Amino acid sequence: MELPRNPTRPVRIGTITIGDNNPVAVQSMCATHTRDVGATVKQINDLIKAGADVVRIAVDTKRDVEALIEIRQQTQANLSVDLQENYRLAKTVAPHVDKIRYNPGHLYHHERQKPWQDKVKFLLEVAGENDCAVRIGVNGGSVDPAKASQFSEGDSISPMLASALEHCELLDTLGFIRYCVSLKDSDPTKVIELNQRFAAERPDIPLHLGVTEAGMPPEGVIKTRIAFEQLISRGIGDTIRVSLTLPFDRKGDEIEAGRQILADIAAGRVRSVVDYGLKSLNIISCPSCSRVENEAFIDLAQEVKAMTEYAADYAVTIAVMGCRVNGPGETDDADLGLWCGPKAVNLKRGSKTLGSYSYHDILPRLKEELDIIISERTET
Ligand code: SF4
């Protein structure tokens, strides 16, 4: 079945082009430490073998940049790089990659030293000089606080949209058109609304779709499918990433899940319903990346899932995150949040930190807090 597609502009990423009626490209991200060149090249190769069109890697330090140079020499893959606050690394990174992703929510730091507009301008100049595409990657867990404060407290959609549209306008004004946008959240209903509203305003800009921190299969695939079916079958979306918490040697499963969802949509095998809502225990967990601080994170996420099965009928969200970069912010909206450090796991209830516990002690401590929430909800 020929799917309708929004008339997005073409954006080339290395050897592929997204938008302009090209096939929806499938992406993933390495979960290895970027500095471990051998493991990262192997994971890139595994992802390409599974059918990845673009592979993203995280670069946070000069050591990561040195590793990236070696990685580039060993692979022809279309590489995207994820830069966080350290946007200046773009200068040394860009010659070795095909796309740069930046998060508007990370550019407001040290605003007084350099306004975010200047940082974007710098990134675009570097991208232009090095034949790189750009992704404006807006994420529900890390929205610029200045943007969030312009809207009512319960409205998490408008600040994200406003942030994306503002950056698009700046890029357009600066004459840089080789870019796409992503608007990700761990809630598939929000992902649907965000992308539908963005596409209504800017149908010309290619969209990279994803449900972030979707968790472990099969639930993570189901959440992602819900969002992708509603969007792609309406012509919205030019490239996708399925974000799953998986053992390091199974990252290719993300690509296979993405390709299966696309094949099902193309064949009209659309199963999900639009009125998805949280009615039962919801475990969100990050897909892990180079920033994971303790590899026990993957096992911990699975142990949390097994331990909390007894609470399956309660509408409680538990977030399990792999590092301090995104962990503290992206656990704020969960009822209970865990973010993993090198030796300890930080436990939160909402935005309040309850304490830091060893990997051995965290599960019983989490259970205590979950039991408190259940008893509070049972009483009311
Ligand atoms: Fe990577 Fe940290 Fe995000 Fe997990 S939470 S995907 S480890 S940046």
Describe the strand arrangement of the main beta sheet, using strand numbers.
8-7-6-5-4-3-10-9
Percentage of helical residues? 25-40%
Molecules bound to protein: iron/sulfur cluster
Separation of termini?
50 Å
- Which CATH architecture of the largest domain is right? Alpha-Beta Barrel
Strand residue percentage:
15-25%
Total separate domains: 2
Please tell me how large the radius of gyration is.
Answer: 20 Å
Chain-averaged pLDDT: 93
The assigned structural class equals: alpha/beta
CATH class descriptor name of the largest domain = Alpha Beta
Order of helices and strands: EEEHEHEHEHEHHEHEHEHEHEHEEEH
Question: Count of helices?
Answer: 12
Number of strands: 15
Low-confidence region ranges: none
Briefly note the CATH topology name of the largest domain. Answer: TIM Barrel
Could you say which overall geometry the principal axes of the C-alpha atoms support?
Answer: globular
